[in-house]
């Protein structure tokens, strides 16, 4: 003899319940498919935005470099030093105008 609980047999509209569960499964499956599509689109958009960000930062750095070059050019133009003196200064071959102080 098999021991165990006897299952109650209850009268239900099984066909209707099965159809209801099947419909819910279809709805959830469709929702999953839509979610996967949305995730895919968002990932593509993210990659595009990352590329645009990199290009923007590169462009911004180039603009800053150009602005610095323009500022240097203006400083050189407004300086009373000759180009050779400025070049010598930048290369580190500066002739000291001050006297060296020796310790006694």
Task: Give structural notes.
With 104 residues, the protein is an all-alpha fold. It has one domain. 71% of the residues lie in helices and 0% in strands. The mean pLDDT is 86.
Q: In terms of topology, how is this protein built?
A:
Elements: H1 14-78, H2 83-91
> How much of the polypeptide forms β-strand, as a percent range?
under 5%
Helix/strand/pairing category? mainly alpha
Largest sheet, in brief, is: none
**Number of H- or I-type helical stretches:** 2
What is the H/E string? HH
Rounded to the nearest angstrom, the radius of gyration is 40 Å
Give the helix level as a range of percent: over 70%
Q: Please give the number of β-strands.
A: 0
Task: Give average pLDDT, whole number.
Answer: 86
